[in-house]
Fold this protein.
Amino acid sequence: MPRRKGRHFSDERERRIVSCITCKGRGECGQPVCPIVRRLEELVSLPKIGSRMEGFTPPEVFVGRSGYPLVRAGPVLPSVQAEELPHLGMNMDEIISARMGMVRSETKIRVLEAGEPGKLLEACQQIAMSSAPVGAEVSFIKPPRRRLQFDGVLSPTGPSGELAKMEITTNPLIPRKVDQIVLDRGAPADVAIAELYSAGIDIDHLSRLLSIGLLGNKRRLVPTRWSITASDDMIGKSLKDEVLDFPEVKGYHLFSGEELGNHFEVLLSPRPFSFELIEIWRPHSLWAEEGFIGRDGEDARPKKGYSPLAGGYYAARLAVLEHLSRWGRQAGVLAIREISEDYRIPLGVWVVREVARKAMSSHPTRFDALSSAREVMAGRLHTPEVSWLKKAELLTGSTQKRLNEF
């Protein structure tokens, strides 16, 4: 397969733009207004909201991190009822349109109030427990601000307003297992999440429960941004412990998937478990005008510290571990995520997780030799192999044959 041509990346360029890659619109770079956020705000149309609205929350709740431990929290409602929630298969414009119509209603709450919630927080917790949309009416102290809100982890939302009053108008549909675990105040959060995941509760539901303070033996609100990554991480750790007891894969297996400007190549190699993610932001992509390549990884030992690739690392790792768990095998994993300029607005870390899942559900190409797998993988990427190969420790450290390969 012919190799696609692309631009090379330099270490100097990496140093110059790493602040945008790290910050991703969260204000950590020190600029009062992110120029990328400002540019994106000019591209979208935000709805005008009055002082009262009603509708069906997806269900979705939001907990901010600013001012922690006194945070802003509340339900998220659509300004116009959408026929379906954003998902893979929808195009970028459809997803953006649906998310820009989502309105945050917020009130200040101390994180430790989760254990003994007031009326507003209790209503938010009921919404978070539901597995189906919940009807709600909200009143604002004043009409919500028309402002685009997003970063590299959260799904974008539109206007936000100070919550004055809220009432649930339909009965939440709460799975029995969720009700049981929420009532168990003795179970640590990681144990509770692993049990709910094993019972078939989806990852978005789990992060809602964690965020709104319904899991763990020390109940507290957890900023939504943190809860999303924490849920991916805790489930990933649980699956990793399981996978480490499985036999190694035989041969090399290459998986591929692409959606919404995100392309994944995932190579499984016959060796003890390790996971390596290389993240390539192509030139002129969202956070990296000149391009950027980052890397992080781990072996069978517990991972130390927070990944420099942020929530995308844990989301991609989860997708791969889910596949290995179903297959009953362990492997050395090299995952490459290549992001193009088609990913023009950050849609949240769910895109990373779901595109990686799509890749792992594809029919893999099997190879007997690593060199053959590497050649095909490189041919599917736009970025020249010379730009990312030096970061791929699974490949560069694999030049010596293992005993069982002779």
Q: What stands out?
A: Residues 1-5, 9-18, 398-406 have pLDDT under 50 and may be disordered. The chain has three domains: 39-168, 176-243, 252-405. Residues 176-243 form one domain. The radius of gyration is 22 Å.
